[in-house]
Design brief:
Blueprint (H helix, E strand, L loop, with lengths): L45 E5 L11 E2 H13 L15 E4 L1 H13 L9 H24 L7 H11 L4 H18 L2 H8 L6 H13 L2
Antiparallel strand pairs: 1-2, 1-3
Amino acid sequence: MDGGFIRIGSSSASASQSSSSAAQVSSNNIPPHLICAICQDIAIDPVVPTADKINRLCNHFLCRTCEETKRAHDQMQERAITCPQCIKNYTDSLPDEDMARKVQDFVQNHPGVFDRKTYDDLVAERKESIPLTIQIYKTISENADNLSTIKDRVQKMFSENNTDDKEIKRILFSIIRSQLEKGNLEAAKKLVHLIPQTIGKCLLSEVILFANF
């Protein structure tokens, strides 16, 4: 645990790695200072919390997609909207233009990490995921007493939306993190099995470890 939130699948990249490094960069070692605290992926279209639509509440940024889906989920649960790191209450978000420039530069300099997609492509792709993510949250809430159906229904949603593996991983990381924070360990375990490739196996170990902590 770090700073009041659970870090799931966090990057192991060195903070000292410079942008001019010739070393290969994969989707699993994006520099930590560019990572969204919720989905643990690069913070595309980053935003920061605000309580007055003018000033930053704190300096903790999130990718816009995670912030919007988190806010919608908190509202569905009729609970205060809080920063996942400092837990301060907020009501809206502001663009983090400085962080956005850093993220854009990274995307431009490492096209292979993002399947040759541009920054604007990634922004559009994530916006399309917002309704899907909110629907998954609703599915989990509506089936809280019947967890065996969650995995099949979520898997069907991804299939019907033709969601690619990287976006599936990002969406599930954000939702699993939320379920762990709420103590819904069984729901988290069900969702872990939908994460593509070996990433899911690594995360499952973390979920089991947390469950026995």
